[in-house]
Design a protein that fits this description.
The protein has about 110 residues and is of the alpha+beta class. The chain is built from two helices and seven strands. The chain is globular. The termini are far apart.
Length: about 110
């Protein structure tokens, strides 16, 4: 079974939050995780990829990350300010899509 988690972190550097997400990923044997609002620069994604024990990353540079295990063939389909969609090969050899949407009630100029 392919398991995907999504979490609105509101700050990935919070140790309690990071520890909780790592435990959840291990407990559920997550194949992929969508992270919203890491609130760190995208150059730190590699650090957290290793911390959470994932091998691949996709990001939109606006606050949406997708971390993936190496055995997953993944490609970016759509990348917008509040939406990131990836395509991946499901274990039954069918293509599947994973979309992470970050809806904000603040209008950006």
């Amino acid at each position: 079974m392919y398991k995907i988690l999504i979490w609105n972190m509101r700050g990935i550097t919070n140790q309690r939050t990071s520890k909780r997400i790592k435990i959840l990923c291990m407990f559920h044997n997550a194949s992929m995780i969508g992270i919203i609002e890491p609130q760190v620069s995208s150059d730190q994604i590699q650090k957290f990829k290793m911390k959470f024990e994932f091998q691949l990353t996709v990001e939109n540079h606006k606050g949406i990350w997708i971390l993936v295990h190496e055995d997953t063939n993944i490609r970016m389909v759509h990348c917008f300010e509040q939406v990131l969609t990836v395509s991946f090969q499901h274990p039954n050899n069918k293509e599947a899509l994973f979309t992470v949407v970050h809806g904000s009630n603040f209008r950006r100029s």
